[in-house]
Amino acid sequence: MLDILLPILIFSALALAAIGAVRRIRLWRQGRPSPVPVLGGLAAVPRRYLVDLHHVVARDKVMSSTHVATAGGFVAAMALAIVVHGLGLAEGVLGWLLLAASATMFVGSLFVARRRINPPARLSKGPWMRLPKSLMAFSLGIFVATLPAVGVLPPDAGGWLVAVLLAAAVAWGLAELVFGMTWGGPMKHAFAGALHLAFHRRAERFSTAAGPGRRSTGLKALDLDDAEAPLGVETPADFTWNQLLGFDACVQCGRCEAVCPAFAAGQPLNPKKLVQDMVVGMAGGSDAAYAGSPYPGKAVGEHAGDPHGPIVAREGTALVDAETLWSCTTCRACVEECPMMIEHVDAIVDMRRFLTLEHGNTPNKGAEVLDNLIATDNPGGFDPGSRLHWAADLELPLMAERGEAQVLLWLGDGVFDMRNQRTLRALVKVLRAAGVDFAVLGNEERDSGDVARRLGDEATFQSLARRNIATLAQYRFDRIVTCDPHSFHVLANEYGELGGNYEVSHHSTYINELLEAGWLSLKASRLGRVTYHDPCYLGRYNGEYAAPRAVLDALGVERVEMARSGYRSRCCGGGGGAPITDIPGKQRIPDMRMNDVSETGADLVAVGCPQCTAMLEGVVAEDRAVVKDIAELVADALDESAPAKDRRRVTEEEAA
Amino acid sequence: MAFDALFKPIEIGNLTIRNRVVSTAHAEVYATDGGMTTERYVKYYEEKAKGGVGLAICGGSSPVSIDSPQAWWSSVNVSTDRIIPHFQNLADAVHKHGGKIMIQITHMGRRSRWDGFDWPTLLSPSGIREPVHRSTCKTIEEEEIWRVIDDFAQGARRVKEGGLDGIELSAVHQHLIDQFWSPRVNKREDQWGGSFENRMRFGMEVLKAVRAEVGDDFVVGMRICGDEFHPDGLTHDDMKQIAAYYDATGMVDFFGVVGSGCDTHDTLANVIPNMSYPPEPFLHLAAGIKEVVGAPVIHAQNIKDPNQASRILEGGYVDMVGMTRAHIADPHLIAKIKMDQVDQIKQCVGANYCIDRQYQGLDVLCIQNAATSREYMGLPHIIEPSDGPKRKVVVVGGGPGGMEAARVAAERGHDVTLFEAADQLGGQITLAARAPQRDQIAGITRWYQLELARLKVDLRLGTRADAATIGDLRPDIVVLATGGQPFLSQVPEWGYAEDREQSLVVSTWDILSGAVEPGRNVLIFDSICEFAGVSAADYLADKGAKVEIVTDDIKPGAAVGGTTFPTYYRSLYEKEVIMTSDLALHKVYREGDSLVAVLENEYTGAQEERVVDQVVVENGVRPDEALYYTLKEQSRNKGQVDLEALYAIQPQPALATLDDDPNAGFVLFRLGDCTAPRNTHAAIYDALRICKDF
């Protein structure tokens, strides 16, 4: 009887899956065009899955093995079941292979089931709670149904009752795992996820035969000259189709939620919920069925949307509240953790762009900061002629006078901040001690545009960027060095699209090079236990984790790591204009970060970002660790009895 | 940005100055080597530059001529080429830290002394005697005028050759240039006196000669007064006319403006306003000058607080603020603003210990900062933590010496407990601050309170320490700074008794603390003539008492410094306090409800009596030695301070024994008035030099 039922079940499931796939693809195609190489993309899926995706998943070894067994077992079992049971070709090893595949899958599904006993808060519940049962039903059903095919059991063993039970189990499994995949069940992640890998908007993230993928963290520019293009994203349909596809790939594992600093601080943001809301929006409906952690402080079931309706209402509620979008620090912890390669930050900034550019509705100090940037080219509204006031006694060489230098020292808007001026002065001292040939733009420098862009004001960003690019074009330099990772990121990764391409180094990278080349002499350190806070825009955005640590090691400190460090570093709360939009939560992100610091027992936390310095130093706590920039630590340790070196002169001598 | 007005650079001539804060010219009395800028001198200014000051103008009243004597106040000697290499050291030290340095040059004319060194004949436009220095002088002759003009030019050349950033011509404080300006002193009828142009001529010829010598690309400024405050002197309108006249030449790069002339004791007190003055009392005079000149205007005088300085600059009254005493109290003032440590700035309280020493020809020192001008000896403004083991330090006494000891020990990283018997810190400062117009001296205590809290010193207020409480803490080091008590028992005939009901006399402490109600008809006998006596007199008069203050010394208040006794006298005379000299308190006896004080003339022995209802005696302090002698025998060092080490700013040898045998008890030091009654600076200096090596 099974040999009749199983082919019917298998082929019906496949047919229903095909119909579901068409419907799902239609949902994605509501999005704006985004050209992709279709065949090339599809061909790249295996490598992207096995290399790039696995690289992320493998950070959790148990879950990674579970997934390999379950998913690998399923793919093999399904393919073999089509052959063995669908087409009735059980000869030779095929039946045995099917037994092995389904057995593997069954073992995997036991681990999936185990994870669902007291599941962590980050995991969505609801339909996801039945998934392990579906997996077991399918794998067990197929396994038993296959035993007669290889002759272990006699045909029709157990009679019709067993046959019906087995068929029911397989049918359940097929419903969940095959057509559930395209009809919106938990297994949707496999279908959308595979296609998302194929048609990802940032194909450069993935490895190819030529080598590993590269970090792709720069926001994509809006074409402000295209009168047809929406200014950012108002409705779900304003996303590109492959962004919608990306949202659909979400497996609701909640890794993003677990690392999101805003979520932890009790601000109304949960990256997983945000992605799920986009999924709700693209299909139309309410978020009532969402079975994960809500946005802190916001009940589930009160928001709804449709593909062509606004995501954020001007008044009242729509799909998402504006404060959810403004809670993001753009720290990219979610993106870094996402096994489905979803680009949360792109989506958030896309939606912010609409709120700022079309609604003119940037909360709290946002509007004032943007006005300042427009009027004075700096966010604080300071006299643009006062950029070098902090350095009146340093006689910094100006590019306008020099025309060229090996290093263009990009100062950033920290010039207006007394705290950061100390970092800058320290950096100048270090560069001078090493005899570096450098010059600054001085009053010709403008804000890099980082804050404007992340507050959604793409027009102001582009205006600042184009003028900075025009200024930089007048001068000759080998590279730009800056102590501001935000400027670093924008100059290195976001000016390129507008025609500005530079070699940019964070000061920690550059100082490390100077140390390695022997251009700096350091005294023995008197610092005790030191921990290092990775700035998001240096670490996750630009992959520089090693140089600052190498500098600390060169200083001879006892370096200890926080539990959340490196690519898992927790944001200070200062990115993405978050301190400006200032969405309230239950606690402050920098307070949490300084708790991380104090857990290490460090007396000092080394930083490499003016924003991080300001946020962490603003923490009021008993016996809080001292906050110092890497440049300050190096400047303090300089052995000033060692003769100053003239790098330029030596280089010329060597050249001669 | 907070304080951005303070941190806006300014161009003066060809010079960019990094901020708006100036340490204006004052006589330092450090150029002891025949007027050369000594190591002490250089380090003193280097510390200010390190601390972030924009511009330092050094060498108040540095003479360009040999008949303007250098030696009385160890001024910088600009009259010889020997100074040039010394200037180079000074310039390098300041420039290294991004600061700029200029020097004030002058000929003081009659404003000096003639009775020593080269026994000069002092010069003045019309030979009129100067009262403050009791100096007579000759009428300057035409040849001498031209010689002095050339001396100015040569002095300016030496400054330029020495690499300093500019000069300030002193036409203030009644030096020779403004002696020519002022009709009060210039009675000449030749081309150097009479009409406005004639009175201006000497200064103008000096300016022309200096400019001709140094050229256009060297800063030349002028310090002038805003109003001489004498009926026959230069008024504010006169000064505006003078400033505009010189400004119109285009040869002056900046003006420094000082409110008030200073050739009497009373006007002199205005020049360096002590704590009795309001903030920036003469800013309006500087602002008036700024109205009529194009060059930047600098103004000092009672600008001590960065918020106050910012407010003045934001208001546009002047272009730069002088914070000179503020820098003597804390040369790291600017750095602390920049480090967001405004609460850690040691703020000048206007005690004028600095300037009152200077007027006696003594080196300028700060009442509350013993490191100032001792940088060359290795005394630090910023105390580095110790590399050695963490010690348990017990300090007994919360007066200035004890507070400094606790601060320094805590900065060194030690575990510090401070006992103070009173309910608050401060010791005698608390009493001093009770007198009218003296409340600001409590700023010394306020700073320590903030610092000791920041440094987490364990404060045991209202707790009298004894050997047992100290022993319980198992200290490595004990510092006693327990002060003393008024010394009323010295003369038994005064009738002092510990029981206040029985005692015929009370102390100035009893009065100032409020422990004893003021009488209605009070005699104060003051054998000391420093602050306490006149403070008690002022306090009692302020409460409505009729007061006579009597001394067997020269005059009540005679030992109070030159910029401070005038403000006491203003207050005392206004309240009709009678000041009587040359009488000692012989005896006190009771007669009915009254007290009779028998006074005896120092020189004739004649006795006279006063019938009063209260007799207050100020007879200094008797050290409180009890605890010291209790602890002395059990201490490792028997309480002895090694003087060789102390004077050489070296570690006390007894400290080294702590490492040899940790269980041999504590090291004991005592300092301040519990050793012998000296003053606030002495207590703080001893505390710093002993405790810096803990």
> What's the helix count of chain B?
23
Which quaternary structure do these chains form? heterodimer
CATH structural architecture of the largest domain in chain B: Alpha-Beta Barrel
**Structural class by secondary-structure content of chain A:** mainly alpha
- Termini separation of chain B (Å)? 40 Å
| Main sheet record of chain B | 8 strands, parallel, barrel
Characterize the main sheet of chain A: 4 strands, parallel
| Helix share, percent of chain B | 25-40%
Estimate percent helicity of chain A: 40-55%
CATH superfamily of the largest domain in chain B: Aldolase class I
Rg measurement of chain B, Å: 27 Å
Poorly predicted parts of chain B: none
Task: Write down the overall geometry of chain A.
Answer: elongated
Query: Roughly what fraction of the amino acids of chain B lie in strands?
Result: 15-25%
Give an overview in words.
The complex is a heterodimer of chains A (656) and B (694). With 656 residues, chain A is mainly alpha-helical. Chain A contains 27 helices and ten strands. Chain A folds into four domains: 2-199; 237-357, Fumarate Reductase Iron-sulfur Protein, Chain B, domain 2, CATH 1.10.1060; 378-516, Rossmann fold (3-Layer(aba) Sandwich); 529-637, 3-Layer(aba) Sandwich (Rossmann fold), CATH 3.40.50. Chain A has a four-stranded parallel β-sheet with strand order 4-3-5-6. Chain A has a four-stranded parallel β-sheet with strand order 8-7-9-10, sandwiched between helices. In chain A, strand 3, helix 17 (418-433) and strand 4 form a beta-alpha-beta unit. Chain A starts with a helix and ends with a helix. Chain B has 694 residues and is an alpha/beta fold. Chain B has an eight-stranded parallel β-barrel with strand order 3-4-5-8-9-10-11-12, surrounded by six helices. Chain B has a five-stranded parallel β-sheet with strand order 15-14-13-16-27, with helices on both faces. In chain B, helix 9 links the parallel strand 11 and strand 12. Chain B is globular. The two termini of chain B are 40 Å apart. The A-B interface holds A 380, 382, 386, 389-390, 392-394, 416-419, 421-422, 526 and B 1-4, 7-9, 16-19, 97-99, 337-340, 387.
